[in-house]
Amino acid sequence: xxxxxxxxxxxxTESAVAEFLKCCGSVEWxxxxxxxxxxxxxxxxxxxxxxxxxxxxxxxxxxxxxxxPKIGERKAAGAQSETAQRWSAQEQSRTGEARAGVMDQLAxxxxxxxxxxxxxxxxxxxxxxxxxxxxxxxxxxxxxxADELRIAGDEQKKITHLRLQKLLxxx
Length: 171
Description:
Layout: H1 3-10, H2 13-21, H3 27-36, H4 42-55, H5 58-66, H6 82-91, H7 102-117, H8 130-140, H9 145-170
Helix pairs in contact: 2-3, 3-4, 4-9, 5-9, 7-8
C-alpha cells in the first residue's frame, strides 16, 4: 500500500469526508467512501468510488453536479472547496484558448441544456478545448433525459477518478 493511500485510510472520518468532497460533491458519496476505508490499493479505491456512485440516488448525483461550475465559468452553484475550485479551473483551462464567440455559444448552449435537463452540462473537461466541449454539449442535448443523466453520471465518475488521483498525489 502506498504511503499516500495509507494516509487517506488513517484520516478521521470527518477529515476523510472533507477530502472526498473535493473529488465528488455528493455528501452521501463522500460519507460512504469514508466508511468504506481502508482501501488496500488505488485500484480498490477507484472500484469502490464507482460502485458507491452507481448506488446513489438521482438527487445525490444532482448534488454532485451542482458542485461544478458550468463550462466556461468559475463558480459552482453548490458548495465547492478551494481545492475543488482550483481543480475545476485546471480541468477547464483550455477554454481560455477559445476562438471569439465560442464562449458565448457555450454559455447559450449551457442555458439551453440546463433548461432541458434541470442540471448543468457535466463533461470531463480535462484536455478538451471549448470547441470540443461545445460540440459534445450540442450532441448530447438531443438525448432523452434518462440517458443524459446516466451519461452525465459517467462523466462525473471520470472527473472523480482524476480528482482522487490528484488527492493521492497531494497527500
